[in-house]
Amino acid sequence: MFHIYRQITALRRCAPVVIAQKREQTGRFPFEAVEIVPKPAAHFLRRLWFRQLRDIPWQISDAELSALLPVLNEIDARLLHIYFGQIAVHLLPLIRAWKNASIVSFHGADVTVDMNKPAYREATREMLAAVKLVLVRSESLRRAIADLGCDPKKIEVQRTGIPLEEFPFRERSFPKNAEWRLVQAGRLIEKKGLPVTLRAFAVFLRQYPNATLTIAGEGPLLGELQKLARELNIQGHVSFTGFVSQEQLREIYYRSHIFLHPSQMGRDGNQEGVPNSMLEAMATGLPVFATEHGGIPEAIENGASGVLVPERNHEELACALLTAVQDPTSLSKNARNGVEVVRKDFDLHAQARRLEDIYLRLIG
User: Which single residue of 5, 95, 105, 209 has CA 20 to 30 Å from 137?
Assistant: First the structure.
């Protein structure tokens, strides 16, 4: 994931080595220190046996453990950082067998998905007891991990930062001809609240018929969202860009006036930490309209550095938008305050230094 790549490549005092099952998109993600430990031939059958037949989380086999331990020894690893809680559950035999400390990062979905199943909850508790430290992206995730039974003293908030130099602030000139340009960016999945965005925009469009909405990203809900846009009769004003590069996304941000991110809890328990796309938009100077969900209120103070509405409520979102565009001065103030929040709390380089402090403290 891009935010993990950013974090790893921002490290300066520690030398990270990535262990992965396969390597993709080397041109987009150049990085030399990668060790490939491929999936064993029977991996699919083993996973099927655990998940489908026994309905318990699968864990690596003795053969996989025997392949991973020598890699850690050969690179003289001092600390093992496992990204995503469910991956750490799979790697629990490695955590227990390896001689040095392990830490795990939780990002959102890995905190709550499948936790209604006793076997998954118990396996997660065992993993939390085995690792030295647990890192989370937000205070809301800290509370969720503690609710799983983790010792609160083992949990620390480690923000996912963004490279501010890549998203410089630019003051917006809001349209006098009512040609408002709205944007949402991210994976097209349930927790992003995209149907709420479309329904709120349909209401907004009745008063501002020259407005447009850009939805940047790809994902499994594309067809469903395009169908909803047609049903709402707004398809001529909505653009689905698909995947865009960081450079293209920046240009979309700079051409836009308002950023939307009405996140919601997924039916499977999937929730946000603090969305990276939202932070990037804030850094560029876009006023953000989001929801009281997950870690979002830790980045946005309602009415001061953005606007927050309840989850799954397109009427509230539409009302907030219609009210806000009547007062461009307030929009600008929220946008500038949002920039300061990102600079203070979500700078990639500051967060990378803090992560290295954690690494060095644990290495001792």
Answer: 95
Residue 232 tokens, joined: 């709402």
Q: 153 pairs with which residues across the strands? A: none
CA dihedral angle for residue 257, residue 243, residue 230, residue 316, rounded to 10 degrees: -40
Region label for 340, one of left (φ > 0), alpha (ψ between -120 and 50) or beta (otherwise)? alpha
pLDDT in tens, 290-325: 999 989 999 999 999 999 999 999 999 999 999 999
Element (H, E) at 163: none
- The topology (CATH level 3) of 164-345 is Rossmann fold (3.40.50)
162 neighbors 348 (Cβ within 8 angstroms):
yes
Measured distance CA(335)–CA(170) in Å, rounded: 10
Torsion angle (degrees, nearest 10) of CA 299, 105, 357, 95: 170
CA distance 50 to 54: 5
Q: Is 192 helix (H, G, I), strand (E, B) or coil?
A: helix
Contact status, residue 216 vs residue 183, Cβ threshold 8 Å: yes
Fold: same for 2-161+348-363 and 164-345: yes
Residue ranges of the alpha helices (H) in 98-193? 109-112, 118-130, 139-147
What is the spatial distance between Cα 314 and Cα 198, in angstroms, rounded to a whole number? 8
116-166 tens-digit pLDDT:
778 888 999 999 999 999 999 999 899 989 998 999 999 999 998 999 999
What does the radius of gyration of the chain's CA atoms come to, in whole angstroms?
A: 22
2-161+348-363 fold: Rossmann fold (3.40.50)
Tokens describing residue 38? 């491929």
